[in-house]
Amino acid sequence: MPSEELPGRRITQVLHDGFADPSAGPSRRLAQASLVDGWLGELWDGAGAPASGAALAAIGSLGRRDLGPGSDLDLVLLLDPELVGEREAQELASALWYPIWDSGTSLDHSVRSPSECESVARDDLRAAISLLDLRLVAGDGDLVDETARRVRAQWRREARRRAPELVDLALDRTHRYGSLAHSSEPNLKSDRGGLRDVTVIRAIAESWLADHDHEVVDAAARVLGDARDALQAVTGASGTRLGRADQDAVAALTGHATADDHHAVLAEAARAVTWELHRTVRAAKAASAPGGTATRGLGTDRRPALTRLPHGVLVQSGEVSVDPGSRDLLRDVAAVRHAATTGLPLADATLARLAAAETAPMLPLQRSVLVDALAGEHFADAYEALDVKGVFARWIPGWAEIRNRPQRSAVHRFTVDRHQVETVLEAQRFLPQVSRPDLLLVTALLHDLGKRPDAHDHAVEGAPLAEAAARHLGFDKSDTATVGRLVREHLTLVSLATGRDLADPATLRDLLVAVDHDLDTLEILRALTEADAIAAGPSAWSTWRADLVDHLTALARDALSATTPAPRPMLAPQRSVVEAVRSAVERTGSAQVVYPAPIEAEPISQICLGAPDGDGVFAAMARTLVRLRLDVHSAVVTTLDGIAVNTWWVSSDPGDLPHPSVLRSALDRELASRDRADARVLELPPPPPPRTTEDTPVVTLLPGASREATVVQVNARNRPSLLADVAEVITVHRLQVRSAHVMTLGRRAVDVLYLTDQHGRSLDPPTVGRIVAALMDAAAT
After folding, report:
1. Based on C-alpha coordinates, what's the Rg of the chain?
2. Phi, psi (rounded to 5 degrees) for 653
3. Model pTM score
4. Does domain 404-563 have CATH number 1.10.3210?
5. How many Cβ atoms are within 10 Å of 199's Cβ, its own excluded?
6. Going by CATH, does the domain composed of 161-288 fall within 3.40.50.970?
7. Tens-place pLDDT, residues 443-466
8. Tens digit of pLDDT for each residue in 266-287?
9. Structural domain boundaries of the chain?
10. Which CATH superfamily is domain 11-157 in?
11. 76 burial class (0-12, 13-18, 19+ CB within 10 angstroms)?
């Protein structure tokens, strides 16, 4: 039995001893493990253990010498059945386990032979991971060494077969637990990025399938371990959830001025662990796949296929990367867009290149591609990859100040930065309902930039910060002001709806002032209000709140419905070019193609097409661009004295455009066959079926937008043939397009069409009903 000094002390007290200097965490935990080893060694000496064929080994936190004040003891009594009989084994186990139980220590124990350990490692994944930490405490060291060798050999031998199971184990907590970095009350052990993930990362490395950055993981594990130790010392319990009530004391014990400062450090460590787990799992999957490093020599040693995408984006081995030789200005953001929309991870080399690239204000077309990424269903994963490398904070001014910042309101589930990402994800559902989906997504991303430690009113103080970020993203003065207004007023709608008398005219008046009497701003604010509340947490939104917000919004919508503004074109045609094309068509009677001067420093080209107006001319021009694979970014369609002069902006460098004679020949062919339905068919692969409400098209009548035409807005998910399909519907219904404003905003297309009948008059109600239904079908095709 142990000496007289130690039996009087509980092992739990031994574990709590020495917790005076949190900065000495690893050395303190090592010292504690040594104390417990000594206690157990004395217990072993007094238990009458045989000289050989028996050993006491540790696994778990004691096996790793990583004990905390509330840690359990995970012990294995190893026995050689040829040297130790069953009765002797039972007596030895009783002599060991009962004193530990009497001490009040939590004990997880087992009695196994080396072959049984090997068998367990083969059949039980979690047990195998625990046995990888097997370490001698007392007894026959050769027996422990042999068992550890057999367990590791079994682990590596089965690595390729068990890789899918190991990956599933690593990813399981994504669905069962939250993210430690973004939680307001994180579980330091079980949450994603916690201590359990550190164990999985190290276990994968032991399989030799994939390695990790040991310095990064070890540093993060120290931070998390110190927090766990401080929490258990403060609470006197073995729990690992860092609740709000204990956060101040734990922060002080770990040497941080405030709980917020400590949370930021924890979040940084958890993000590092999450990223290393992601990289390790990805590498393990690649290594165990056919042709991977774990399957070489099996006749599958071939280079993985390389897929080249527009703008210098590459896909290889299931990763998104970029062509380093490409000078396309959209290259980097296009790679992020592909990752956010497909779920494929960004390659490490690409992330490193993004992190090292010079930071500069974005061009409008670069911003448009970034908005595509914001609309991607996998945007959160892409964000985490960018953020862990510091890229996102360089792209978004003011992001660094709210990164990893906890929120003290019980309503909020996430840190400030992650809440904004979650708001973007929630806002995706509302993209068909607003005329400026790009402004909705960007405002969702920026709306809480004002949540700084010393902020008094984060909405008011965040407005100028959001405006600065919007300018950096390439928005013009008008859109920047709208973003600032939405950020300043993002709490106004729900505050008025739930805290004021809706029958009081002053309530409606205050809301109209908040949205600057603009219907488009009102619709964005309504969408932002719900997205922000749902992203905060389940208690922030309810049917009661939704009903009140909808009622007040309806009142404001009715008040503004007679003031529908005409759409503001994103780009304006060059008047001299339009007049020159009109004159040339009038003089020659044939189609004309002109390439105006390129837009400076923009990866976008302008094309001006002219032809005598008539049924199907607009559709013929749209089909021409589709057949030549020119991606329309924006367009302004006009009719001047019976001549259609349409200006198109396409996402292409001027040097990549076809020669004007090629474009004119293609346009002539389309115009010549515009009366033949079979010749108007576009041979394109069908688009994927809608997956979410965000893919649903919305066709809206804009009353009051024009006195001379019926104005219809088509808001749909963009695709190469969308504009041609919409134009074809107009042709089939024998309607005229007096003018049109075509805009691609993120991955949404918002097309405003000024339609008349054959006599140049506004459409009658039956015709409006038919064309709206037909446009819905065309946009959904």
Report:
1. 33
2. -70, 145
3. 0.80
4. yes
5. 20
6. no
7. 999 999 999 888 889 999 999 999
8. 999 999 998 888 888 888 877 7
9. 11-157, 161-288, 404-563, 575-684+693-780
10. Beta Polymerase, domain 2 (3.30.460.10)
11. buried
